[in-house]
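FORM 7B: Structural annotation worksheet

SECTION A. Query
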Amino acid sequence: MITRTGGVILVLIAQVCFAMGQGQSPSIVGRWNVEIAFADGNKRLLRFDAQGGGKGSFELLDPRAKAWGAPTHFEAKWTSDNENIVTFTGPVEFMLGNVGRDAGALTCKGKFEGANLITGDVDFAPLVGERPSKHGTFKAVRDNSAH
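SECTION B. Predicted structure
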């Protein structure tokens, strides 16, 4: 009887450990501080607010944009898969100098490095002119201070 009870307990412990190891993918829903580093040396900061249903928004954290009355909020969308891969994308207008604007489509594709960190590659495709896309990397850190 003791051996049988011990075996049942061992099986239950193994099942619990297996279930914990399988874990669910982290949720992207929430507010993220995003640091972008383009290959040309330019850096950008923005906030990504991910809502349910794949909806979201970008907020540029460039004080020049606010000072010059440039748009700072843009609609965005996101997708994720079972491999902890997440993509968020949307239009943005980065400031060029003091008054110029670089309008384009921003796409960040990365992987969860824990529940509160996403790292990956970024692409910015200009909407105006015949300029090539800018490529780089990004790091998104969950903003737990919001709410």
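SECTION C. Observations
The first strand starts at residue 30 and ends at 38. The chain has one domain: 27-142.

SECTION D. Sign-off
Analyst initials: ____
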